[in-house]
Amino acid sequence: PHSLGLCLADQLHRPGGRDVQGVEPHAGQPGKHQVAGQGMPSAAEDIALARDLVLARLTGVRFHALHVSTAGSVELIRQAKAQGVRVTAEVTPHHLLLTDAELRNFDPVHKVNPPLRSSSDVEACRIGLADGTLDAIATDHAPHSPEEKESEFEVAPPGMIGLETALALMLTDIVGGGILTLPELIRRMSTVPAGILRLNGQGGPVAEGAAANLTVFDPAAEWVVDPSKFASKSRNTPFKGRRLKGRILHTMFQGSLVVRSGELAPEYRDALSVGTTMGGRTSVWAAAVPSDAPAGAAVPEGSV
Fold this sequence. Notes:
The protein contains 8 helices and 9 strands. β7 and β8 form a beta hairpin. It starts with 5 loop residues before the first strand and ends in a 16-residue tail after the last strand. The strands form 2 sheets. A 5-stranded mixed sheet has the order 8-7-6-5-9, with helices on one face. The chain is of the alpha/beta class. α1 runs parallel beside α2 (about 70-80) and α2 packs parallel to α4 (about 120-130).
């Protein structure tokens, strides 16, 4: 077999999955967290992924699975890696933190695709992230207007925004919960996704003459999620009111400051109102600095 390049596979968004995605909620055990409509069973994702992994093995293609959300998918990827299949995979913050229990009140803010799954699926995704079965964390940032998201559950579009909360959520629950170390979390949100996509100039290292694509954050700073203060024009986040640990101070892209002291530069204010491709992924090399660091303190080369 010969490599055909990188194949990105979204098990549920793509046209081949239309026969199983008429309704987005997770279809779990009967009588448990039931929601309107037929629901989308874990098997819909597992079957599509199993097929794709067989094809990846057959062709030798580099294969990347987007938005992994089920225990079955995690195990399929784990087995495929053990068999030498060239597969990588990502998981979203919301599939690491939220379960289908959130859907009991039919709030469309919790409607995503693939849907929120059971607590056992969330635990499997966390284990898969910890042991390297799931390589990267990606936001699947999906902005929608209030008019769209505040409609009836069945007609509201799936998706939630994540660019402005992803790092802090992962620092609070994934690093704080002992699932990943801080250096490993940074790798999974920067150098690993950049490597998967072979993005030149992204993912470090911090070196003289290299492209300055940086995120500087304070890992100890605490803040409360207030969507009204987001740079994004969208407000569809389920994490409103949550106290999080870790706050971004500055970001730099191609040597230009995009965010300075937590404020988006005027020339970039419209950037976060538009959905981004390939899972809303932002691949940069990050540097953590303490809140008491002096102004203008240098970031150590290659720091995490």
